[in-house]
Amino acid sequence: MALWVGYMAAILGTICWIPQAVQVWRARETKALSLPAQALFLATVTLWLIYGVMIGDWPLILANVVAVTMVGAIVLAKLKFG
């Protein structure tokens, strides 16, 4: 049961970044986004990913692979489009 709770938390906690990443790249507009905040969050999810790999926790790994990808795309867009 706990594993399923972990997977649901992983799914819900990461899919929220998909619309933001898609919107940023479609609109090419990032003025309202804070680069320091996005970069800090990218560092956070990257560390969570590393931690998940270290302990072999698949919900944590999968959630943070998606989060690193989406937040990384947002940071890249912010650097590219300003």
Automatic annotation (TrEMBL):
The keyword Translocase does not apply. The chain crosses the membrane at residues 6-25, 32-54, 60-79. InterPro entries: PQ-loop_rpt (IPR006603), SemiSWEET (IPR047662). It is found in: Membrane. It is a multi-pass membrane protein. Keywords: Membrane, Sugar transport, Transmembrane, Transmembrane helix, Transport. This is SemiSWEET family sugar transporter. Its main location: membrane. Pfam families: PQ-loop. NCBIfam families: SemiSWEET_2.
